[in-house]
Amino acid sequence: MTSPETGTLLTLGLYALASISGIAGTALRLPFWRKVGCGLAVAGFIVQTLILATGFHTSLPGGLSIGAYFQMIAWFVMLCGLGIGIKMRNETAALFPAPLALLLFAMSAPYLQSLIRVPESLKASFFALHIGTLFLSLALLALACVAGLLFIVLERRIKSKQHMQGFLQDMPALSLLDKLNAVTTITGFPLYTLGLAAGLLWAKPVYGASFSGDPKEVITIGIWLLYAWLFHNRLINGWKGRKPARLAIIIFLLSLFSIIVVNTLMDTHHAFIRS
Amino acid sequence: MDCELYLVGLNHRTAGVDVRERFALTNHCDKEHWALPCQGAISEALILSTCNRVELVASGCGDVAGQMLHCWATARNACSDDLRPYVYIHKNLEAVRHLFSVASSLDSMVLGEPQILGQLKTAYRKAADNHSTGVILNRLLHKAFSVAKRVRTETAVASSAVSISYAAVELAKRIFGEMHDQSAMLIGAGEMAELAATHLLQAGIKEIFVANRTLARGQELAAQFKGTAIPFEQLVDHLSRVDIIITSTGSVEPVIRARDIRAVLKARKNRPMFFIDIAVPRDIDPDVNGLDNVYLYDIDDLKEVVEENLATRRDEATKAAAIVDEEVEAFSQWLTSLNVQPTIVELINRAENMAQAELARTLKRLGPLDESVRPALEAMLHSLVRKLNHAPIMYLKGDESAHDQSPARISLIRRIFDLEGKTCTRRSSGS
User: Fold this and answer.
1) CB-CB neighbours of A124 under 10 Å
2) Mean pLDDT of all residues in chain B?
């Protein structure tokens, strides 16, 4: 059995190779290397899943490091990306998540020793509902963001009658990218809502009030409102194409800001880093 | 080389359409009217005759090219001198290179067009039916097909559309992906629009509607595409049901305006629409392209796409030419191996090497031996090798005057004795 450190390094290596192979295969238009990229991404995901299954629950009582927090998001990104890629039978959708996961792994490195303060009483269910659902919705948002970005780039070229050059010729059709964006945002919003509701519910016994004006709470509710607007317009008003793609990108960027800046630099209940 | 390979031909570059018509051999490729008999200097022959080219490929000894020209001219009731100003004659590797380029569509009028490969396959089938192909042409043609496949998969020489109608369909695929759930509307009747509709149907489009000012003509077209005719006046009402709209009416005023489409989009819940306006003057208000989820391409836009695609194909042709060069080199090595002398040397060396290997193995197994045993064993093996090789070498040398049989004999011996090393490779990899 490998140690968690070896397993983490192996996962990181597989995600890095999957990203290199996927990006090179896409940029140079080499289908073989795109397939290799998909295979390596799946292998990396399996290794990470095994590490989580065998080691994560044992590390929880000691506290969850913020590095592990990023790695968990990477796992959810891979889960959603590969799931959607397989469901839509689209290689590109399966290739999206590896570089994102790699980025999240790289971001996790400085924080592997920094522990998240998880209240003892909530340790078991806290992860399952509040963190779990929020992680999953964040992973879906990340994919929505990539699909949205690609949609905007390709749509602009088609609208302005510019020639599709290089790897852009191999990208999925606009409809598929829009569908990917729709599926991820429509699935992500209820999860985000559930995660937020769980957080508010638990905030009362822990911090004395559901909403205490904490910066993290404020920005999260702001994101939720934008997300709700996107969800409503997608489902009820039939928004398609550029508009929801842009909004999904904005929501994801705000979420990233919330994780990177608010969680680590601001004075908040969610400032999990303990030096 | 005992036998030489020749390619004699004319194409759209060397001859005008009247000359191509005059010397076409379309009706001379069948068994009954075969124009290039395998007699005299010619031992193998193939005829490719299309609207843009006539190519005669033959192998043999002597004045092969002269006989080819004579047969060709005679088949068309002319003399060789009438034909000579328009033809090119390629010999050996240049002939191989030209044929590979033709098969890969690098010599076609529309670079990368796919028909030529099918035409070459048909020409080969007809030649084979006529028993006009042998060792050299069989190998050459099979190689030409594989080179064409390699060029198609490894370069983008045939990847993008170079006709207006097909470019429109390619764009539709970029927007909608799979076309099985999409429906289209043809507004007005024009050759290019009809062609685009045909391509859309081939791409698997679900349903097609036809709106024409003359309902009867619309119904006729709808029947042709197994679609539905709708009255021209009601076309806007039907727009919410269709994803791709091809217009080619003679109207001087726009038939579809941006304000119409705004309402249509609402009814469609913003599902994307693709307008292809082939008419001049244009049928669709250009402002339509400014709407979200609506894409409009007019004839000039499509022409530009085609031009860019052609430029891409020209760039890719350089890569394809490198592949052709590589394959010509490989074929040249095979051709060289068809010489008698190198084959005899290879045959002897192979047998000697095997004998030495077996001797070494046996001596190792037997252990220390009397000093006189080893030379005796070596002499026995040498004699055995020489005697075993005698018959195939005599067969290879054969009747000196029967040059036409030489490649066939060499090829047979090389295969029987595995001089290409295929069986050995398999065995060694298996072990």
Assistant:
1) 10
2) 87
CA distance A243 to chain B (A): 9
Where is the domain boundary, B277, B303, B329? B303
The model's pLDDT over B162-203, given as tens digits with 9 standing for 90+, comes to 788 888 888 999 999 888 999 999 998 777 778 888 888 988
The verdict on pTM exceeding 0.80 is: no
d(CA B238, CA B275): 14
CA dist., res. B259 & res. B285, Å (int): 9
Condensed to tens digits (0 to 9), the pLDDT of residues B77-113 reads: 999 999 999 999 999 999 999 999 999 999 988 888 8
CB within 8 Å: B175 and A176: no
Name the one residue in this structure whose structure tokens are 């928004």: A239
Say how many domains are in chain B. 3
Torsion of CA B11, B16, B22, B23, to 10 degrees: -20
| Domain endpoint, select from B130, B154, B178 | B154
Q: Return the residue of B nearest to A159 by Cα.
A: B295
Separation CA A189–CA B89 (nearest Å)? 71
User: To which residue do tokens 């508009």 refer?
Assistant: A243
* Interface residue A152 vs chain B (CB under 8 A): no
- Mean model confidence pLDDT for chain A: 81
pLDDT digit string, tens, across residues B275-309: 999 888 899 999 999 999 999 999 899 988 888 88
The domain limits of chain A are 1-116, 124-275
Please tell me whether residues B120 and B171 are part of one structural domain.
no
Asked if residue B426 is part of any domain, the answer here is no
Quick one: which of A112, A22, A26, A104 has its CA closest to A63?
A112
Q: Are residues B32 and B139 in the same domain?
A: yes
Q: What is the average per-residue pLDDT within B400-424?
A: 69
Q: Note whether B133 and B208 are same-domain residues.
A: no
CB–CB contact A173 B174 (8 Å): yes
| Per-residue pLDDT at B405 | 59
Q: Please say whether the beta carbons of B278 and B248 come within 8 A.
A: yes
The DSSP 8-state label assigned to residue B355 in this structure reads H
pLDDT category of residue B427 using cuts at 50, 70 and 90 = very low
As beta bridge partners, residue B228 has B209
Bond from prior residue into B281 cis (ω within 30 degrees of 0): yes
Is residue A94 within 8 A of residue A82, CB to CB? The reply is yes
Choose the closest CB to B173 out of A29, A173, A178: A173
Q: Hey, of B160, B169, B174, which one would you mutate to test binding to chain A, going by the most A CBs within 10 A of its CB?
A: B174
Residues B176 and B136 placed together within one structural domain of the fold: no
The domain containing residue B387 runs over which residues? 339-420
Q: Residue B174 is inside which H or E element, if any? A: helix B164-176
The contact set of B with A (CB < 8 A) is 156, 159-160, 171, 173-178, 269-272, 289, 292-293, 295, 297, 301, 304-305, 308
